[in-house]
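Agenda item 2: zinc ion complex prediction
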Amino acid sequence: MIEGGCFCGAVRYQIDNALDRARACHCSRCRKIFSGASSAYAEIADGSKFSWVTGEGELTKHTSSQGWGLAFCRICGSTLCGTFNGKVHGVTLGTVDGDPGVQIEMHTFVGSKAPWDHIGGSAPQFNEESPNSTASE
Ligand SMILES: [Zn+2]
Ligand SMILES: [Zn+2]
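Presented output:
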């Protein structure tokens, strides 16, 4: 069981049982969406179940493009999850409590990263989308 929540604690979620495809996207859109150097995001693994524990009513949703959206806490502003056609698709790794069981496995859109961004670690870096991605962002 993976648990997480927003900064103020109003919104909590759980995932039974796994995340998959953790990645950091450094594109200009993700920098704005995640208010940082990149996204830090993982998908709900196939066969796993996401559910809100508390505070679903405090969520504000923003639909960006082509069915993709985000849900964030209207009180503290934490971005909690990404949605596709209204359904939770994945979570922001920064909102997971403890070890999410995945590590960033790739950096995408490194070719357009912020000038102040220094990427560490050994995960592969792609100038644009990963060649075997489903282009979800
Ligand atoms: Zn909050
Ligand atoms: Zn991106």
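Discussion summary: The mean pLDDT is 94.
Owner for follow-up: CH.
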